[in-house]
Amino acid sequence: MLSKGLVPERLRRSRESSMPFRGLLAGPQPHRSALLALVCFAVVVAAASLPARAAAAPPANDNFADATTISTFPATLSGTTVDATAEAGEPNHSGEGTGPGASLWWRWTPSETRHVTLSNSVPGPFYFEVMAVYTGDSLATLDEVASSFNISAGRGLSFWVDAGETYSIVIAKGTIGPDPTTRGPFDVSLDAFNGPDDFAFAQSLPNPPLPVFGFGSNVFASKESGEPLHAGEPGGRSVWWQWTAQTTATVTVHTCSTIFDTLLGIYTGTSVAGLTEVASNDDAPNDLCGTASATAFRAQAGQTYSIAVDGFNGASGNVQLSLEPPPANDDFVNATSISGNIGQTNGTNMFAGWEPGEPLHAGFPGAHSVWWRWSALGDGTVVIWTCGSDFDTVLAVYTGTSVDKLANVASNDDYCGVRSRVKFAARAGTEYRIAVDGTDAGVMGPITLDFSYFAAPARSAPSTPPPAPPPDITAPALRLSGAASQKVLRQRGVFVVAASPTEASSVTAKGKVVVLRSAKVLKLTSLTKQIQKGARSTLKLKLKTSALDAIRRALKAGKKAKATVTVTAKDAAGNVTAKRRTISLRR
């Protein structure tokens, strides 16, 4: 270290020469400001006098005419959108309104016809957003083969190429994409497609007992010439599976584990242009699985079915296809047995089917019926209802041993809201079949079925004959007589006023009905005569106009008259009995 006295003379003079400048900075404020302004001006002048930096040249394949030739396959298309430009007359790639802002070009002439993909495997910023493939010799004559917008990692497009045809591939950065100012390097893979994209290369599903599952992706899939519109929608990225049914049964097919908006189609046929649709669906019914698809169909043993999964509006992603069996009690012969006097059972008609010859339950077409069976231990009244179910049900009760030869006992559509309830008189030892369905195709869900049975009260035979009815005091009048009033019209458990041995009814030629002891007078129409006592029973005698006129003419002439009538009796439990009988009429 040098001591203060040993400082070299040259260094001392240098310090002294700088003293005027140091004094200026240390001087008054105006002097310092003037000096700083002078220095800034000098810096600006010096910078302006420097030669300007030359603009970076665009990439070599920036223009269509200078496209890079692809000589190997598979290939990696590497480049950068930094300093890339767009040409005048360049098309708006993918038609998404993205610009272009910058584009790079490649040219490829494949040696064989094949299905290929362009894919971006590098995550990160949007250094490019559009891929497009064209044929044509100039910008003005380009014909798009395929394109895709908003490319992210793991995404791309697929397309078919013909041997010997020249294709121009462009990778572009738009002007209004997610970040139009972000540019940088990229690597895009050109490779062969690997997936069940085409009908002819459908993936086979296994044939053990259901359920079975298929897995794949439609990310790079495309649509074939002649391929149908699955679920009536254009789609654009279909993949195919094939499955052969081992037994005749209803099968549920769905994509509920797939996270994008799917389309589903099921077909028979041996060529993509000659398919016959069996079933299809866009969005699963009743919001079962969002925008995924689900449907059911009646599969025939030995038949091979082709199943297509597509994306709505070209949506794509990983696909999980599921084939599942229907509910266990889907078919009439597999009806679930229930027993007891009162109870509740749960089930579902989700993707149940419809059997050949099956009746319309409560008059509705339905499509997803399930069955229960119950046997009456004795005579009584049964009430069955679906009020705890989650959808618009129909309910029907039958007797019979074959689904195509059933006798209707009771049926109902809406009783408790859109749910159903029936009430009927059960006979000891009779087995009843109970069907629950939705009001239309696709109407299905969880079922809660409740039932209650009430035994009929014991009846004892009368010890003495009933007293004769009082004389008819309404004259002139017609009296119901004979077997019709004393036996035929008296149904078991039904108290029919007109046929009661304790009361008589009469009919005047003027069209009035008088029920003795109840003081009820009702109008008689040409078609229906109705007698009702309280809420216990209802009797209807249906007469045609011609029959009623004939009766009146006979009575007017002082002759006896007979008439064939339809007698309908309804008791308090809602049971209806109808019979046709001939009755005698006299003055």
Q: How would you explain this protein's 3D organization?
A:
The protein has 587 residues and is mainly beta. The chain has four domains: 64-192, Mitogen Ypm (Jelly Rolls, Sandwich); 199-324, Jelly Rolls (Sandwich); 332-455, Sandwich (Jelly Rolls), CATH 2.60.120.1050; 478-585, no CATH class. It is 10% helix and 37% strand. The protein contains five helices and 35 strands. The protein has helices at 9-17, 19-26, 29-49, 483-488, 545-556, and strands spanning 68-70, 75-80, 102-108, 114-120, 130-135, 143-149, 155-161, 167-173, 185-192, 203-204, 212-217, 239-244, 249-254, 262-268, 276-281, 294-299, 304-311, 318-324, 336-337, 342-348, 370-375, 380-385, 393-399, 407-412, 421-426, 431-438, 446-455, 478-479, 505-507, 512-515, 520-523, 528-533, 537-542, 561-570, 576-585. A five-stranded mixed beta sheet has the order 1-3-8-5-6, with no helix packed on it. It has a five-stranded mixed beta sheet with strand order 10-12-17-14-15, with no helix packed on it. A hairpin with a 3-residue loop joins β32 and β33. The longest helix is centred in the first third of the chain and has 21 residues, at 29-49. Mean pLDDT is 74; it is low at 1-27, 43-48 and 470-543.
